[in-house]
C-alpha cells in the first residue's frame, strides 16, 4: 500500500508513556520510608499493593523535599524545589531515583499539582521561621505539611469525594498537631516554637524567653494538653472518613490514626512533659494497635456522628476544592 492510500480515518493506537523509574528506584523509595517514619511504614504494610506501591515514591519525594529545606544553607532552596516539582510534572524529572518514581505516579494517578505546591509552601514557612499566633493559623500550616499527604493517599485509593477528602485532611492536621505536642523540646532546642503564641501568652509564657532556655513548666504542660485535646476532636472527625474508604484501605488508615493518637496518650502519661523527654510508642504497643486495626478497621461512631456532615476546616478547604471530583465508587471498589 502506498503512503497516499492510507486510510486516515482509522484511529492510531495511543501509546502509553513508558515508566521512568527502575526497580532499583522503587526500592530506594521504600528504604526512605522504612528509615524515615517507622509508624507510617508500619501502617502502610496494611495497604493493598495497588495503593502501597504508588504511595512509596510520593512519601519519598515529600521526605526528600523536607530534608532539602531543613538542610539548606543558602536562600533559594524552596525555589529549586518548586522547579524540581515542575520537572516531575512535565515528565522530565531530575536524575534521582525518587524524582523518576514520583514523576511516574504523578502521571499515572493524576495527582493534583496544587496539593504538592501546598506542601512546598508549608516547607517555605518553615524556612522563613513563620510563627503561628492562633490555632487556626497553626492548622493552616498543618494543612500544608500533613493534610496534603492525606489528600494524596485518598486520591491513590480512588477516593475523591469532597466529604471524604475533608476527613482525610482532619486526620492530617490531627497527626501534625500530635507531632508538634511531642516535639516541643526538640523544636525549642532548634530555635522553633509551633505552639500558638496566643496560647503561650495566656499561660504567661514568653516565647522569646523560653527559647533562650527550653524547659518544662506546668504552664507549658497545660498548653501541650490543650493542643492534644484539640487534636483529639479532629481524630474523632477523621473516624467518619475511614468509613468512606474502600474496605481494603480502612485498616491501614485506622492503624495510622491509632498509632499517632497513642503518641498523645504517652505525652499525657508523662505529665505533658515533651521537653525533657520525647514520647514514643513501643513496638509491642504498635503491633497491638495494628492488630486492633485489622480486627476492627471501621471505627465505632458515636450516635451524634452517624450521618453527620461536617464541613472542611477553613485551613484545608483549598485542598478539598482542588482535588474533589463527583465520582461514584462501584460496589466492587467499595467492598474490595
Structural description of this entry:
The chain has helices at 23-36, 38-44, 49-70, 77-89, 97-109, 113-127, 135-157, 162-182, 184-189, 197-202, 207-212, 218-242, 247-269, 283-295, 317-323, 331-335. By secondary structure, the protein is mainly α. The chain has a domain at 128-328: Farnesyl Diphosphate Synthase (Orthogonal Bundle), CATH 1.10.600. It starts with 22 loop residues before the first helix and ends with a helix.
According to DSSP, the number of beta strands is 0
- CATH superfamily membership of one domain: Farnesyl Diphosphate Synthase
Tally of contiguous helical segments: 16
| SSE pattern, N- to C-terminal | HHHHHHHHHHHHHHHH
CATH class of one domain: Mainly Alpha
| Architecture per CATH nomenclature, i.e. the level-2 architecture of one domain | Orthogonal Bundle
Q: What's the multimeric state? A: single chain
Strand content: under 5%
Low-confidence stretches: 1-15, 327-336
What does the overall shape look like?
A: globular
Q: Helix coverage percent of residues?
A: 55-70%
Q: What structural class do helix, strand and pairing data support?
A: mainly alpha
The overall pLDDT, averaged over residues, is 88
Largest sheet: none
**Gyration radius from CA atoms, angstroms:** 22 Å
CATH topology of one domain: Farnesyl Diphosphate Synthase
CA(first)-CA(last) distance: 50 Å
Amino acid at each position: 500500500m502506498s503512503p497516499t492510500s492510507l486510510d486516515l480515518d482509522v484511529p492510531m493506537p495511543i501509546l502509553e508513556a513508558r515508566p521512568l523509574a527502575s526497580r532499583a528506584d522503587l526500592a530506594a523509595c521504600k528504604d526512605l520510608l522504612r528509615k524515615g517514619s517507622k509508624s507510617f511504614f508500619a501502617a502502610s504494610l496494611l495497604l493493598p499493593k495497588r495503593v502501597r506501591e504508588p504511595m512509596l515514591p510520593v512519601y519519598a519525594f515529600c521526605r526528600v523535599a523536607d530534608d532539602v529545606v531543613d538542610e539548606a544553607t543558602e536562600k533559594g532552596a524552596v525555589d529549586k524545589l518548586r522547579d524540581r516539582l515542575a520537572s516531575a510534572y512535565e515528565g522530565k524529572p531530575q536524575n534521582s531515583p525518587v524524582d523518576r518514581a514520583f514523576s511516574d505516579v504523578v502521571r499515572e494517578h493524576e495527582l493534583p499539582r496544587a496539593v504538592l505546591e501546598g506542601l512546598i509552601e508549608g516547607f517555605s514557612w518553615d524556612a522563613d521561621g513563620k510563627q503561628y499566633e492562633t490555632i487556626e493559623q497553626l492548622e493552616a500550616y498543618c494543612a500544608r505539611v500533613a493534610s496534603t499527604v492525606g489528600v494524596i493517599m485518598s486520591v491513590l485509593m480512588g477516593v475523591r469525594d469532597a466529604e471524604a477528602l475533608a476527613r482525610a485532611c482532619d486526620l492530617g492536621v490531627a497527626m501534625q498537631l500530635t507531632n508538634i505536642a511531642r516535639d516541643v523540646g526538640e523544636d525549642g532546642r532548634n530555635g522553633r516554637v509551633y505552639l500558638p503564641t496566643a496560647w503561650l501568652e495566656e499561660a504567661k509564657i514568653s516565647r522569646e524567653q523560653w527559647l533562650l532556655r527550653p524547659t518544662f513548666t506546668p504552664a507549658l504542660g497545660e498548653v501541650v494538653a490543650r493542643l492534644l485535646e484539640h487534636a483529639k476532636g479532629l481524630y474523632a472527625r477523621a473516624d467518619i472518613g475511614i468509613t468512606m474508604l474502600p474496605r481494603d484501605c480502612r485498616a491501614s488508615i485506622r492503624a495510622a490514626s491509632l498509632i499517632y493518637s497513642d503518641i498523645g496518650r504517652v505525652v499525657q502519661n508523662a505529665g505533658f512533659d515533651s521537653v525533657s523527654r520525647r514520647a514514643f510508642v513501643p513496638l509491642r504497643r504498635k503491633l497491638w494497635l495494628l492488630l486492633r486495626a485489622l480486627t476492627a478497621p471501621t471505627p465505632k461512631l458515636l450516635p451524634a456522628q452517624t450521618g453527620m456532615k461536617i464541613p472542611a476546616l477553613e485551613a484545608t478547604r483549598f485542598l478539598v476544592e482542588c482535588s474533589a471530583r463527583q465520582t461514584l465508587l462501584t460496589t466492587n471498589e467499595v467492598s474490595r
